[in-house]
């Protein structure tokens, strides 16, 4: 029987462990993944859940990976809402029963260091995607995804999935260099252009005696397509000659099917990002290892706008009242055509000490910290319009300096002998949000902060105690029983908005929860494993959801300090069949969530702003089935095939809130969770060193609003279905040089998730390995 892909690859990737002692290869025979040999990830020793993985070799062969999140692209039931290369503020991960607006329902780690941003949830006035930029594609050794909240080792944010990036640590001297180029011809509304991205990276590492080190550097220079658009509802026009007559408006229908004019494009980013990371490991003894990681990520980004409108002389119209086809409309403002300038510098650190003997008792002590050393966004004011705004004038400065989080954890594994194995641990996770928005003095581009616009912030902390017992109670049977206890506090919350006469220091809160977990597996036949898992997860409100009200020229975010914690019960039944050169899995899953924490964004046409409100949704129930297959040398020697199909019926069952009228959300589909999604990858090794792959992804129709009123997905602010096909070819041109060429979305499908996704993109790269 084949070793489980996760456990086998972990052992292969870290042979220093096996050098210290002889360890029997871990196997999948009992349906619970057993990680042995002192795994260097945050994964617990026993994993009572569905696990899918992708290795460094698979990424190189089949994925045009420009960012670390691209490694997840074809895994079952997963989607990252990545809008362009280097997307730093909207790339949210979704899973079986969690949409692309619920970033706090999944947990992303790199070598055990938390990358998920649990300061908030989703996007709105503030954005909280995982900090993908702290991992580069070139340093990834493998990625493992554990579905569902079935391990007691993780907080309730694991209800959707846990993603663990394992990055490289060398066994000998190695050096790598890579350069890439991407070109995206883009044609939408009044925008017709070619947007490009350049990438370069270098890494070097070595192992000498008891010491190992690794350095990784990269730069990304990327241009996005326009992501937002200035609009005017046709019904908001007034017949008559008022306003400047203009041409160039594009007639379309919004997500609700109403006719509107697209009058300009905005949020066209030019972003330059630098990444640097250093890792150091010291084998203090054959069974004790200390490791330290420090990573820095810097981003400088400018967002530009373009008016589609032209006056009689053919000149751009960027301000004032306008007249389209005999109807006058509200004046163009800086909110329609905003300009932004962002400067970000974030640093993460991680330190661990691990004893790995595979004897009676092993343990690990780990700490990490993530700091917003600098996090500032400058933007022109609504009354400061183009072209003058490009040179300065009125605007705001949003300052998040000092925001961040830290974690501290101790965990152990006790093997008393016989049928039991115990994993247990203590954890503390602390989050602090500081966000101050001020009017800029003199110039939004260069001025200092002046009068206060808003100040929001606060702290949350989660202290946890957990344990789980893996018990092989009979031949062919194994169970994992776990319990997690959590104490959550929120404190120092403040929401200050002088213009709205809001100045509130919120009282502190604390709550306690217990979350049981259980899994059972049975080796039914020599090649067939049956497995059942059940787990409770409690997802506490984030700082931003509690206190983070904000207001900008084009968006408002409304908080609620009295939000309840979200409580979910999740279960799955799986059957795994070993086909010799392939693995087939069928999983039935269900999730029942009470007081679901939801950020709902609606467009206020009168104020011309997007308004996001956070609320508890009484109950959401999801049932579905997932089919996954992965095989090597299938049909032909050298051909690898993998694929998955997922069906999820996710329905709002109870909700005291509403969108337009009471009860209009009950019985409706959960936003951003499609009923059907699928992916498939076929790769063929034609010759040693030359391979090609073709991959496809499909997502069915879905909705963005809770009352499912957005029936037109193929429009700005809509969420559409999609079907895309990607190609990749790699050639080992010499012993040290590899070339690759790819095309993403080769069929040129135009699809949306509020913003437009990339159109057909051409990728070229060269890599040198020494």
From TrEMBL:
Q: What is the superkingdom listed in this entry's lineage?
A: Bacteria
Q: Name one GO molecular function term.
A: siderophore uptake transmembrane transporter activity
> What does the record list as GO biological process?
siderophore transmembrane transport
Under the heading SUPFAM superfamilies, the entry gives: Porins
Query: Where would I find the TonB-dependent receptor-like beta-barrel domain in this sequence?
Result: 343-746
Membrane topology reported for the UniProt record:
Multi-pass membrane protein
Its localization reads: Cell outer membrane
- What's a GO cellular component annotated to this UniProt protein? cell outer membrane
Entries under PROSITE patterns matching the protein: TONB_DEPENDENT_REC_3 (PS52016)
Family per UniProt? Answer: Belongs to the TonB-dependent receptor family.
Keyword field contains Disulfide bond: no
> What keywords does the record list, in alphabetical order?
Cell outer membrane, Ion transport, Membrane, Receptor, Signal, TonB box, Transmembrane, Transmembrane beta strand, Transport
Name of the molecule in the record: TonB-dependent receptor
Signal peptide location in the record?
A: 1-19
| Protein species of origin | Ramlibacter agri
């Amino acid at each position: 029987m084949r070793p489980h892909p996760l456990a086998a690859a972990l052992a292969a990737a870290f042979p220093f462990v096996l050098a210290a002692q002889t360890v029997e290869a871990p196997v999948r025979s009992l349906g619970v993944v057993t990680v042995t040999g002192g795994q260097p990830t945050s994964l617990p020793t026993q994993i009572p859940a569905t696990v899918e993985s992708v290795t460094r070799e698979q990424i190189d062969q089949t994925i045009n990976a420009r960012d670390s999140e691209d490694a997840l692209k074809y895994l079952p039931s997963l989607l990252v809402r990545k809008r362009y290369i280097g997307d730093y503020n909207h790339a949210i991960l979704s899973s079986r029963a969690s949409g692309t607006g619920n970033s706090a329902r999944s947990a992303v780690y790199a070598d055990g260091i938390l990358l998920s941003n649990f300061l908030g949830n989703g996007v709105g006035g503030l954005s909280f995607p995982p900090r993908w930029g702290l991992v580069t594609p070139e340093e990834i050794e493998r990625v493992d995804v554990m579905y569902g909240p079935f391990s007691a080792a993780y907080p309730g944010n694991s209800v959707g999935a846990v993603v663990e990036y394992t990055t490289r640590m060398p066994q000998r001297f190695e050096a790598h260099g890579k350069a890439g180029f991407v070109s995206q011809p883009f044609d939408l509304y009044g925008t017709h252009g070619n947007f490009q991205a350049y990438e370069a990276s270098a890494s070097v590492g070595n192992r000498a005696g008891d010491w190992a080190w690794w350095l990784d550097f990269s730069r990304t220079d990327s241009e996005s397509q326009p992501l937002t658009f200035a609009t005017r509802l046709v019904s908001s026009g007034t017949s008559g000659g008022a306003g400047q007559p203009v041409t160039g408006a594009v007639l379309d229908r919004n997500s609700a099917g109403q006719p509107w004019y697209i009058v300009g494009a905005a949020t066209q980013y030019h972003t330059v990002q630098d990444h640097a990371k250093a890792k150091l490991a010291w084998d203090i003894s054959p069974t004790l290892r200390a490791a330290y990681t420090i990573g820095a990520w810097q981003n400088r980004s400018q967002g530009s706008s373009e008016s589609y409108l032209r006056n009689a002389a053919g000149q751009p119209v960027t301000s004032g009242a306008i007249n389209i086809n005999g109807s006058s409309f509200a004046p163009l403002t800086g909110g329609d055509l905003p300009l932004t300038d962002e400067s970000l510098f974030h640093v993460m650190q991680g330190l661990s000490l691990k004893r790995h003997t595979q004897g009676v008792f092993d343990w690990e002590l780990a700490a990490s910290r993530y700091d917003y050393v600098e996090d500032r966004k400058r933007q022109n004011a609504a009354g400061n319009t183009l072209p003058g705004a490009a040179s300065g004038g009125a605007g705001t400065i949003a300052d998040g300096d000092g925001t961040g989080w830290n974690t501290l954890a101790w965990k152990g594994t006790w093997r008393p002998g016989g049928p039991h194995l115990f994993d247990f641990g203590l954890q503390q996770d602390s989050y602090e949000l500081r966000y101050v928005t001020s009017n800029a003095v003199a110039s939004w581009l260069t001025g200092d902060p002046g009068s206060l616009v808003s100040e929001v912030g606060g702290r949350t902390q989660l202290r946890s105690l957990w344990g789980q017992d893996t018990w092989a109670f009979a031949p062919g049977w194994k169970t994992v029983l776990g319990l997690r206890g959590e104490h959550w506090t929120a404190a120092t919350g403040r929401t200050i908005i002088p213009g709205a006469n809001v100045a509130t220091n919120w009282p502190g809160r604390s709550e306690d929860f217990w979350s049981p977990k259980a899994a059972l597996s049975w080796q039914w036949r020599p090649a067939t494993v049956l497995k059942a898992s059940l787990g409770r997860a409690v997802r506490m409100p984030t700082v931003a959801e509690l206190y983070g009200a904000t207001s900008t020229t084009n968006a408002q975010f409304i908080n609620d300090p009295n939000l309840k914690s979200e409580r979910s019960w999740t279960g799955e039944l799986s059957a795994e069949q070993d086909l010799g050169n392939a693995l087939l899995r069928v999983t039935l899953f269900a999730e029942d969530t009470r007081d679901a924490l939801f950020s709902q964004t609606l467009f206020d046409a009168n104020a011309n702003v997007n308004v996001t409100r956070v609320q508890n949704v009484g109950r959401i129930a999801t049932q579905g089935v997932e089919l996954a297959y992965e095989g090597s040398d299938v049909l032909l020697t050298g051909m690898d095939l993998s694929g998955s199909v997922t069906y999820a019926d996710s329905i709002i069952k109870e909700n005291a809130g509403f969108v337009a009228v009471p009860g209009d959300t009950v019985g409706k589909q959960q936003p951003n969770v499609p009923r059907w999604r699928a992916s498939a990858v076929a790769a063929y090794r034609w010759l040693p060193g030359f391979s090609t792959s073709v991959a496809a992804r499909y997502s069915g129709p879905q909705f963005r609003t809770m009352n499912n009123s957005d029936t037109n997905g193929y429009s700005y602010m809509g969420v559409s279905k999609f079907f895309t096909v990607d190609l990749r070819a790699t050639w080992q041109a010499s012993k040290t040089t590899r070339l690759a060429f790819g095309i993403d979305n080769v069929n040129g499908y135009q699809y949306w998730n509020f913003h437009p996704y990339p159109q057909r993109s051409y990728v070229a790269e060269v890599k040198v390995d020494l």
